Amino acid sequence: MFENNAICKLLNIKYPIFQGGMAWIGTAELASAVSNAGGLGLIGAGHMPPDVLRAEIQKCKGWTDKPFGVNIMLMSPFVKEVMQVVIDERVPVITTGAGNPGEYMPALKEIGTKVIPVVASVALAKRLVRAGADAVIAEGTESGGHIGEITTMALLPQVVDAVDVPVIGAGGIGDSRGMAAAFALGAQAIQMGSRFVLSEECIAHENYKKLVLKAKDRSTVVTGKSLGHPARIIANKLSRKYEEMEAAGASAEELEKLGAGSLHRATHEGDVENGSVMIGEISGMLNDIKPVKQIIEDIVGGLPTVIESIQGNCK
Ligand SMILES: Cc1cc2nc3c(=O)[nH]c(=O)nc-3n(C[C@H](O)[C@H](O)[C@H](O)COP(=O)(O)O)c2cc1C
């Protein structure tokens, strides 16, 4: 299976499954487990200072001999320094969020690092492919974390049609059916975040995982729209306070202050009422915590049955 898959060939991985970079919880523990299971694990650099990222990369190298990557948020105050760390450490793959990694492309290409930006629109996908992206991740608004506005169902085929590099589908994928659907829309790989939050290897606080386990289809809301960086989180005290302040015309500064440190508060301190419990809409379907290897094997193992059932419905 997947011998001819463009992403597996490009990145030298067994299964076309990425674990999305996740600030604070996409650590070496999770990334190495995903890479060891045959997918592509990604360390989420978030706003990590460069020395912390270097230590995380070195841990990951110690725990897996398979390819892994780093997700770099281009709005990080340390972006230049973390790019240098990735180059020094010769990390084989980087994915990027929140912007255009064009200025770093020549240095990354020179050492053979594959650059795969996350995009939420056709225009950005085209621009980044022109700048040299090796593939793009088309991420729909169903996703957990910072999001765009278009659904995976509508965005993915439009990005596939617009670019001539492989496309990875992300947002709302949590099982074999989701993977088959993304492939039907033209993706050559999938990226999941929410499903991997509910893995044994994810270091998120148990309160965080418990709340995600309880989530239903309509449990998430989007905050931060007025600030220009919307994020999908589980509705809680924090999201309600946010909405109240937004409605009362709070300034950007006041809203930023409310959000500052809120993901860490939930992921590490376990305060899931006053912290940001970032998770995707698919969380309503996720009801177990499994080892990463089992998550990946269940999804890949279930694909033939899903494909058969699609064929059956088309007869
Ligand atoms: C807790 C959490 C944190 C995230 N942090 C980041 C991040 O730092 N950088 C990024 O590009 N995407 C981030 N994402 C998005 C994921 O990488 C992934 O694309 C997304 O979760 C896919 O959608 P899904 O949640 O429906 O699987 C985050 C997602 C979650 C759930």
Automatic annotation (TrEMBL):
Record key words, sorted: Flavoprotein, FMN, Oxidoreductase
Spans through the membrane: none
Stored InterPro entries: Aldolase_TIM, Enoyl_ACP_red-II_put, NMO
One Pfam family here: NMO
An MF annotation (GO) of this entry: nitronate monooxygenase activity
Protein's UniProt keywords contain Oxidoreductase: yes
Highest taxon listed in the record's lineage: Bacteria
Function statement: Nitronate monooxygenase that uses molecular oxygen to catalyze the oxidative denitrification of alkyl nitronates. Acts on propionate 3-nitronate (P3N), the presumed physiological substrate. Probably functions in the detoxification of P3N, a metabolic poison produced by plants and fungi as a defense mechanism.
Record-given protein name: Probable nitronate monooxygenase
